[in-house]
Amino acid sequence: MLLAADPSLADFGKDPIWISIIKAVVIFAVLMLGVLFGVWFERKLISRMQNRYGPNRAGKFGLLQSVADGLKMGLKEDLMPRTVDKVIYFIAPVVLAVPAFLAFSVIPMGPMVSMFGVTTPLQLTDLPVAVLLVLAMASISVYGIVLAGWGSRSPYTILGGLRASAQVVSYEIAMGLSFVGVFLYAGTLSTSEIVASQAGGKALELGGLTIPMPSWYMILLIPSFLVYVVTMLGETNRVPFDLPEGEGELVGGFQTEYSNSLKFAVIMLAEYVNVFVVSAVSITLFMGGWRAPFPISMWDGANSGWWPLLWFFLKMVLVFSFFIWCRASLPRVRYDQLMALGWKILIPVNLGWILLVATMKAFQIQGVNRQLVVALAGVVLLGCFALWWRFDSVLQKRREAKAAQVEAEFAELDAEPTAGGFPVPPLDLPHYHGVARKEVPSGSN
């Protein structure tokens, strides 16, 4: 049920053009400043977790360190390798950054407010398929990574771009499936109406006191929320899923050939804005959006006026702190583990959970044949189990055959130690493989 202060789709498209321009400029400025403070906050929080001080020289508490880094990258000489594809090399950072800013345009940050005498929602725009717009912008951003790797014409950068494309395919599917439960419960893909659907849960009577219960989807649909938490780390290439820019393997990944100049700054800007976008999406879909948490929600004016903007900002800080916590705590996974988690765990779990949620919603429809719903759900589950059993048995037989082959090879090598097999070293060291060992004179280094 929509409250009086809750915006709906009918409230959008009525703002004067100057109000829309003000909203767009404010969102852009807040994201730019958010990146500066986000970099400082991440460095400061990680340093505290590692018993260090972090930035503490430039400005009070090191607050101007990010500003100094940004000015340095903006004024630094832009070095470009001669072999790069110049057009793609220049376009790639733009393709990374622009969709990230566009995705934030459909994020609701508050209810209806009065802005310069005009009643308008604290949201730039909304669409009947707003969540799909966010997914589309996230999918376009990966092209920037692929183009950056391809345009640099380097083996390491190309490998980083290929990893990014494979990673986004697996985790984008899991992320999209984690939204389906929310769509089924909310009955809409509009971000403002999804926030409105999380308002006012069932009240709990306790000793004559009426306590409103939370109706956030992070509680009602906790499997979807947990899957999304994992996928948003993979979607933004953050630890432990930062394989496209694994420094230990690919030097610097897809951005190896970008010197610490303005283009490199744009790439880093796009990464942090993407983190803000997925954080805002998690707040919108699972954490009640701009609504105040309990017990602040018991205050009548908590969800009206400009106060919801504060609750939204505090939730953003908490989710961003979770990103930092993961970076400071978790090691990088192997690439095969990354792909196995996305395809073999997250997607099957999501499909099973969607089936369960759809069955529960079907039971709430008046006049539905419940026996038929249960029978269809049972048939689907049995079919999925049969497919898993079939392919799992085949894979197990392949693993056993491969293990037997490896053991046979090692046994053969151990039987002939003079052939240079592993782990037994060859015996005739002076004439190994027909090459005489050079005698070293005594007393020489």
Automatic annotation (TrEMBL):
GO cellular component: plasma membrane
Name of the molecule in the record: NADH-quinone oxidoreductase subunit H
PROSITE patterns the record matches: COMPLEX1_ND1_1, COMPLEX1_ND1_2
Enzyme Commission number(s) from the entry: 7.1.1.-
Catalysed transformations (reactions): a quinone + NADH + 5 H(+)(in) = a quinol + NAD(+) + 4 H(+)(out)
Superkingdom classification of source: Bacteria
InterPro entries: NADH_UbQ_OxRdtase_su1/FPO (IPR001694), NADH_UbQ_OxRdtase_su1_CS (IPR018086)
Residue ranges crossing the lipid bilayer per the database entry: 17-41, 87-107, 127-148, 168-187, 216-234, 264-286, 306-326, 338-360, 372-389
Assembly description: NDH-1 is composed of 14 different subunits. Subunits NuoA, H, J, K, L, M, N constitute the membrane sector of the complex.
One Pfam short name: NADHdh
Location in the cell: Cell membrane; Membrane
UniProt keyword Electron transport, yes or no: no
GO MF assignments: NADH dehydrogenase activity; oxidoreductase activity, acting on NAD(P)H, quinone or similar compound as acceptor; quinone binding
Membrane topology according to the record: Multi-pass membrane protein
Entry keyword Transmembrane helix: yes
Major subcellular site: membrane
Coiled coil: none
HAMAP family assigned to the protein according to its UniProt record, in alphabetical order: NDH1_NuoH
GO annotation, biological process: aerobic respiration
Similarity annotation: Belongs to the complex I subunit 1 family.
Keywords in alphabetical order: Cell membrane, Membrane, NAD, Quinone, Translocase, Transmembrane, Transmembrane helix, Ubiquinone
The protein's role, per its UniProt record: NDH-1 shuttles electrons from NADH, via FMN and iron-sulfur (Fe-S) centers, to quinones in the respiratory chain. The immediate electron acceptor for the enzyme in this species is believed to be ubiquinone. Couples the redox reaction to proton translocation (for every two electrons transferred, four hydrogen ions are translocated across the cytoplasmic membrane), and thus conserves the redox energy in a proton gradient. This subunit may bind ubiquinone.
